[in-house]
Amino acid sequence: MQHDVTIITVRPGKHPAALERLQQAPFATNLLACWYSELGALNQILLIGDVPASALTSSDPLGIGEFITGITADRYVSFDFMPPIEPGAFGPVYEVRTYMLRTGGLPRTIELWRKTVPGRLPLSPLLAAMYSVTGQMIRFMHIWPYPSLDERQRIRGKAVADGVWPPPGGPDELVTQQADIYLPASFSPLR
Q1: DSSP per-residue codes, the chain
Q2: Do both 51 and 95 map to the same domain?
Q3: What is the pLDDT of residues 106-145, one digit of tens each?
Q4: What is the pTM assigned to this prediction?
């Protein structure tokens, strides 16, 4: 399963106006997610779903050109053991973790996750685990929904204390890590 992930950076304080316009965009019905950043890299809007290239390259990108300071658009492929991403209420707090892997680290990472994720899932769902096939290589993105930031902290602490996370040896494959917290726009199918 492939997913297009578009991250739009907007000027400070402009994400509410940008989200309002994005909701009216013709491609909005093709989105799985439209989220805005709350912690981590700020002033970002993350879209998962089909955003036409013409909407990104027009003279008024996405109909919000006046607010935009940057756009990245990349394609990700889900780990082969992951179920499809389906719309629904899983958050409203979404932790999006993006890692750079060492050269040759992807196959081992996938196998470690294949073995370890089943033991982690009883604590909380995993929405996505996928790797980039465009842009800076090799990136790995995983998305964890939580009902609150407090619950995120509790669950992550329990996973480590119980020894069910992270996958043993998994950190050895990492070069960099970034974690961002996103909240869903009112019209996001994933909320």
Answers
A1: -EEEEEEEEE-TT-HHHHHHHHHHSGGGGGEEEEEEEEESS-SEEEEEE---HHHHHSSSGGG-TTTEEEEEEEEEEE-TTSPPP--B---SEEEEEEEEEPTT-HHHHHHHHHHHHHHHTTTS---EEEEESSSSTTEEEEEEEES-HHHHHHHHHHHHHTT-SSPTTGGGGEEEEEEEEEEE-TT-SB-
A2: no
A3: 999 999 999 999 999 999 999 999 999 998 889 999 999 9
A4: 0.96
